[in-house]
Amino acid sequence: MIGVGDRAPDFTLPDHTGAEVSLAALTAAGDFILYFYPADFTPVCTAEACAFRDNFDGLAEVGLAIVGISPQSVDSHRRFVERYELPFPLLADAGGKVIRAYGVSGPLGFGVRRATFLIGADGIVKSRVVADFLVRSHLNLIRQTIDARRGG
Q1: What integer pLDDT is reported at residue 109 of this predicted model?
Q2: Active site residues
Q3: What CA–CA distance (Å, rounded) separates 86 from 83?
Q4: Which of 17, 81, 125, 137 gets the most CB atoms within 10 Å of its CB?
Q5: Is the pTM of this model over 0.90?
Q6: Residues 6 or more apart from 43 whose CB is under 8 A from it?
Q7: Which phi and psi (to 5°) does residue 54 adopt?
């Protein structure tokens, strides 16, 4: 798994609308949060996405975008975004190529680990949280990042 100080692996994936999103485009806009999650519509993943949604304004206020990646289809992501009114893109990594590149495959290569990365505009990982079942540590990373950028 990539760690703090590592260069984020490049990618281009379709988002929930079918538009292509690349690491280069995301870093061109500045630092951003990239999170990996196992599956749309599951209880923990839904709680995580909604917690991130509820902190979206704070992220935007300090100039941070947030993007999620999981192996579900563009259509599944579209339905998930619509149902929970998520204001950020979800990227479809159906083949798991990006999941593997970031080292967040589940045990024995099955599934996806829950991981959140703060990636700088320079493409370097500034912070990382890995907690497969608990959303709190991922949310804490987001809140701490917002607070630090507010000067608090």
Answers
A1: 76
A2: 45
A3: 8
A4: 81
A5: yes
A6: none
A7: -70, -15
